[in-house]
Amino acid sequence: MNISVIGAGYVGLVSAAALAGKGHDVVVIDTDEGRVRTVNGKKSPIFEDGLEEAVSDGIESNRLKATGDYDEILATDITLICVGTPSNPDGSMDLSCIVESSKSIGRVLRAKKGRHTVVVRSTVVPGTTRGVVIPALEQHSGRKAHVDFGVAMNPEFLQEGIALRCYFNPDRIVIGDEDGATGDMVQQLYEGISAPVIRTDITTAEMVKFVSNAFLATKLSFINEIGNICRRLGIDVYDVVKGVGLDYRIGRSFLRAGIGFGGSCLPKDLKGLVHSSRELGYRAQLLESVLEVNQNQVVNMLAMVCEKLVDLDGKTVCVLGLAFKPDVDDIRNAPALEAIRLLLEKGALVKAYDPLAMPNARSVLSPEVQYARTAEEAVADCDCVLVLTEWDEFRNERLYQGKVVFDGRRVMEPARARMFCDFQGISW
Ligand code: UDX
Ligand code: UDX
How far is CA 404 from CA 387, 389, 400, in A? Predict the structure, then answer.
């Protein structure tokens, strides 16, 4: 198939490279000229396991190319919208990139001969494809959706760090459409991938994505809250999960208690859902609490640090880990950002280290933050160490000998850690 993908971000580039690898001809369209040049230069603008090789293979085999020119859509059968949908300051979803890309696709479709299919892959609040994307496409193309062109919603469930693996081994494929034939065409993109296919209408497909992320976030805040209770009872929540998680109705995944969830999706999708339900006249109390519990994990850790060091003013605090999770350089909504902001506010000197995310962190963090070249250098001469991302290299006992350590990611077994350092786990 000839496929155009709008957006060379995590979702767009992973989908494009994966589809090119399966033998499709794919053009990725991005408004960022630098990204276009990077992709055409066989490089990946983002750090993601296996992505650079997949991009390079695609470019070399002429199955993948990047451009800034929307007219390239004309030569394709199907367009996947994969632009970002960040949060507005009030928590609502910023749909401006969705609107702009839909308008641009619409303008091109005016000249398109034959049927075209447009697929929304970005996470959008339920109702967006029908209420925002379709009107923009119709207005700018002068054509009718579901008659002159097909529209589908096909949410992505990619986890950063293992995104290509997730693409080829999904738990399920969800396709929402209104006419059957459009959904069939989208389903063809997944030929050869073995997973249950769930066909729904467009708005239900949008909701499936939101509910998946809301549930994952709820599991995390649930276990963090239980951890906070366990800690006060002198119980290790990780032992509790061993006893609970074997219940097949509950499971063990996403029950690693810690400093809380971050990333480009969970926090923003949850805020978006809370905001839209409020607009619908319903207060999503549980989901609001999930966000609150998550934010409080960082605040709680800071309170523990303040109690230990008495006064943070002038103290040196080492922060190990800036990325929102290991094996990525992504710092979007990373708990470390808020922790560092609070530490600086209390007058602490912050020395940070992350094996991958320091260049990204430098561009958003206060210039007061000092960066170390190694974990060893970061922990040297500090008053305490906070572990905020579970990179494998932080599971090294030697780093913490004799130190005051606050483990936000369970990089060490508490009982053992207490033998060689002054150790506290955040929720255990
Ligand atoms: C994706 C999804 O789009 C989002 O809805 C989901 O919830 C998380 O994952 P992501 O791939 O992380 O977002 O976005 P990002 O890495 O910001 O990439 C978006 C790309 O789209 C950027 O390369 C940007 O330059 C491009 N873009 C944005 C356009 O080409 N056109 C636009 O109008 C806006
Ligand atoms: C998430 C969803 O998992 C994915 O399906 C969706 O498409 C995009 O959003 P991602 O943002 O890559 O993926 O991160 P994920 O692996 O889900 O982790 C989210 C956050 O939860 C991270 O900050 C991680 O450290 C934290 N987490 C995860 C925990 O604190 N404990 C756990 O047990 C699992």
Answer: 11, 17, 8
